[in-house]
Write a structure and sequence with these properties.
By secondary structure, this protein is α/β, with parallel strands linked by helices. It contains 16 helices and 11 strands. The chain has 2 domains: 168 residues, D-Maltodextrin-Binding Protein, domain 2; 132 residues, Periplasmic binding protein-like II (D-Maltodextrin-Binding Protein, domain 2, 3-Layer(aba) Sandwich), CATH 3.40.190.10. It has a 6-stranded mixed beta sheet with strand order 2-1-3-10-4-11, with helices on both faces. The protein has a 5-stranded mixed beta sheet with strand order 7-6-8-5-9, with helices on both faces. Helix 3 packs across helix 13 and helix 12 packs across helix 16.
């Protein structure tokens, strides 16, 4: 006489479930766990600048596509916290942001150098920030308004150019001060602008006559008529290599007269290699970090994201979180004498 099979109960049931879980591939369990965590949640991306500038635009385009690549497809929301190029925001974010992957931030690419070159206002360790990736690798340029007598880098060695700054340690302040010290340019920096969008308005109003620290693609995106109609002069490039689309604009590194000068310039322009950085606070679980990095990489490679960015005039180039992490460590191994010289230059 046949008997109907019985289902395991009690300890047997628990043992069977444990066996099933054990036999599942580890990556499948982790994927399910991440999906369960992010499903129904919101990832907040805080921008250390006001709305309308390059960092804000990159964050908003990323946000439209990022959630599709994160397990569980969470919502993604962008918020702005301007001031000092994002330094105050990073200080708060580093200590207070929720460390579960739902809080990310993007800020001035020069911020990771702040504890090295300044330190008095920074309350974070760039070596402990969790780098998710960068949406671009870009050369910066300094520009002057068309009516300014300063139209070339040679002019800038002889005549003063008043430029706007977005914070005491932002690139828009650091770059001109370093060029003054190393190359002998004559920038005069007026700080206090919440972001590049306000600085551009200041140029149109005649409050300032230039800005130092725009990415070439960002300038083209924010003010295409300025480029088309030659309303600004592009004076110098700040990067470790020239933007291939602008070979006519001199590279600051090529203008250095000694190895010491080249080391100094390289230190401050190297962060352009991660032109639009995105980070999480320290303490993010390793498995969650892996998922967010995978999602970020997939987003920047996504044809829909790239088309969206191109439509808005944004240049994109993936820099992985691992690459940013390695470069930041390398920057913090810069010889002490170079760091001390740049500390003096950026005071």
């Amino acid at each position: 006489m046949s008997q109907t099979p019985t289902r395991p109960t009690g300890a047997s049931s628990v043992g069977a479930l444990f066996l099933i879980a054990f036999l599942l591939p580890a990556h499948a369990v982790a994927q399910q766990s991440s999906a369960d965590f992010f499903r129904g949640k919101t990832i907040n991306i805080t921008v250390g600048f006001s709305a309308g500038g390059g960092y804000d635009l990159h964050a908003r385009v990323l946000a439209r596509h990022f959630g599709r690549h994160v397990p569980g497809e969470p919502a993604v929301v962008v918020k702005n916290q301007p001031g000092a190029g994002g330094l105050g925001m990073v200080n708060s974010f580093y200590s207070n942001a929720v460390k579960d992957g739902t809080e990310l931030a993007t800020f001035d690419r020069g911020i990771p150098l702040d504890p090295l070159l300044h330190g008095t206002q920074s309350r974070f360790d760039p070596l402990k920030l969790v780098w998710i990736g960068s949406a671009d690798n870009d050369a910066s340029t300094c520009i002057s308004w068309h009516s300014s007598p300063v139209k070339t880098i040679d002019d800038l060695m002889k005549q003063e150019l008043i430029v706007g700054g977005t914070g005491s340690t932002a690139n828009s302040v650091v770059f001109p001060r370093v060029l003054n010290t190393v190359l002998g340019t004559k920038f005069k920096v007026i700080s206090g602008y919440p972001g590049s969008a306000e600085a551009l308005i200041g140029m149109e109003r005649g409050e300032i006559h230039g800005f130092c620290g725009f990415g070439f693609a960002t300038l083209q995106s924010l003010r295409p008529d300025w480029v088309r109609d030659n309303l600004v002069n592009q004076l110098v490039q700040l990067a470790v290599k020239k933007n291939p689309d602008h070979p006519e604009v001199p590279l600051a590194l090529d203008l250095a007269k000694s190895d010491a000068d080249r080391q100094a310039i390289r230190l401050v322009v190297s962060p352009n290699l991660f032109a639009r950085p995105f980070a999480a606070p320290p303490g993010l679980p390793a498995a969650r970090l892996e998922e967010l990095r995978k999602a970020f990489d997939a987003t920047v490679r996504d044809p829909e994201y790239q088309a969206d960015a191109t439509e808005r005039g944004l240049h994109t180039e993936l820099v992985t979180g691992q690459e940013i992490e390695a470069l930041v460590r390398q920057l913090y191994e810069t010889p002490k004498e170079v760091v001390e010289r740049m500390k003096e230059a950026t005071k």
